[in-house]
Amino acid sequence: MHTGMHTDTERCVRAVRSKDARFDGWFFTAVLTTGIYCRPSCPVTPPKPQNMVFHPSAAACQQAGFRACKRCRPDTSPGSPEWNRRADLVARAMRLIADGVVDREGVPGLAARLGYSTRQIERQLQAELGAGPLALARAQRSQTARLLIETTALPMAHIAFAAGFASIRTFNDTVREVFALSPSELRARAPKRQGASTPGALCLRLPFRAPLHPDNLFGHLAATAVPGVEEWRDGSYRRTLRLPYGHGIVALTPRPDHIACRLTLSDLRDLTVAISRCRRLLDLDADPVAVDDQLRTDPVLAPLVDKAPGRRVPRTVDEAEFAVRAVLGQQVSTAAARTHAARLVTAHGEPVDDPEGGLTHLFPAPEALAALDPESLAMPRTRRTTFTTLVRALADGDLHLGVESDWPQTRAQLLALPGFGPWTADVIAMRALGDPDAFLPTDLGIRRAARELGLPSTPAALTARAAAWRPWRAYAVQYLWATDSHPINFLPV
């Protein structure tokens, strides 16, 4: 059982007094005298310690009857880094709730995906977060509603359903309860935005904990982009998204203090999921200070970290797509892997309309790939077997790669597939499943970096040395890769 930072009153009070933004999302401060709750970095004068109580989630504050502060807008802070670092039941449940599962499938659907009873899940979430799955999903719905109210001109009725509310009345009541303002008052207070360049596009700011070094993050996505599905254009990474109710196109642009996100969705009910997947893709809920402090304890890594602190692990918006692409990339160059993937996209992807041109398809679903003729694949026979076994396992549901995956168990399942060695399983664990401790000791780039830095370069010796980097070895991989002049390490010009 984990106890969160919110139980350490003294440390929380210190963070609030120093207005330390690094702790935003770790805990929330509820003020007994005013009945509002804030993020630790709230700009107002901190209340007296005896008037502060600390909660582990916005939902717990709302359940205790507190309203969101209008100055610091605590519901817009980055998510707790705990859910990315951990693989236990609560962390997996939180990743699913962020992915909108409770709104689509209810608490029974959440429980079924995790293989526990609804009672066990309710009890564990309540114990650790002070709120059950319904309250957590409701807090997320209110945040989505506020985003749409403030950034679009959509009628309130549309917003209510897009944010996942069952009725206009529940929407009105919830917004009033959480923000102490009616939906129309919230809209009136919102700063006036410049019109979006694309009709129907939503323009949002995705917050993160500083520092964030964008080069390897966006460089990786741009250098490995599959034509038709992804592109780098005018300083933005753009891609198509397959979503529960429809599809979307997103453009993500690094800015000094946030990531600018422009989204076009075929169904607005997908907004929460789309935002959650973009945050995951760019690893925006990471705690870079904790990661970098740990890696700096190694004298070989320290100069690499100091040179470009805040590297993130480039992840994915679609775990099955990433696994397929990892197999296509086995033992071939980045360019060859892109060519293979582009052929599959043209032949089997679903066409989408991109108002800005450039993107043409969704990456093919496992079901479409399982139906193709293996003889049509221009690859060696053994790789063909690996590919067809993987897509069949994904299409039949024998292998499930999702935000809720149990990392060790899924890794074992992957290693049992023909043609899956440690490199393929670990690259999927690192970039698709989000395991922050996945490590690639057999990767050529890692071995080259290790040799040049005077680290042991045999996989066994390097793994032994890397024990000191745990639980952040996936981040160490980014720092080691970045010693090379490969295009993945640079923002495209």
Task: Describe the protein's architecture and organization.
With 493 residues, this protein is an alpha+beta fold. It is 46% helix and 10% strand. It has helices spanning 9-17, 58-63, 82-85, 89-98, 101-114, 118-129, 133-151, 156-162, 168-179, 183-189, 214-223, 271-281, 288-296, 302-307, 319-328, 334-348, 366-370, 381-396, 407-415, 422-433, 444-453, 459-465, 473-481; strands at 28-31, 36-38, 52-55, 67-68, 202-206, 230-233, 236-242, 247-254, 259-265, 350-351, 361-362. β7 (236-242) and β8 (247-254) form a beta hairpin. α7 packs across α9. The longest helix has 19 residues, at 133-151. The radius of gyration is 23 Å and the shape is globular. The mean pLDDT is 92.
List keywords for this structure.
493 residues; alpha+beta; five-stranded antiparallel sheet; four-stranded mixed sheet; 23 helices; 11 strands; globular
Record the SSE blueprint:
Blueprint: H1 9-17, E1 28-31, E2 36-38, E3 52-55, H2 58-63, E4 67-68, H3 82-85, H4 89-98, H5 101-114, H6 118-129, H7 133-151, H8 156-162, H9 168-179, H10 183-189, E5 202-206, H11 214-223, E6 230-233, E7 236-242, E8 247-254, E9 259-265, H12 271-281, H13 288-296, H14 302-307, H15 319-328, H16 334-348, E10 350-351, E11 361-362, H17 366-370, H18 381-396, H19 407-415, H20 422-433, H21 444-453, H22 459-465, H23 473-481
Parallel strand pairs: 2-4
Antiparallel strand pairs: 1-2, 1-3, 5-9, 6-7, 7-8, 8-9, 10-11
Helix pairs in contact: 4-5, 4-7, 7-8, 7-9, 7-10, 15-18, 15-20, 19-20
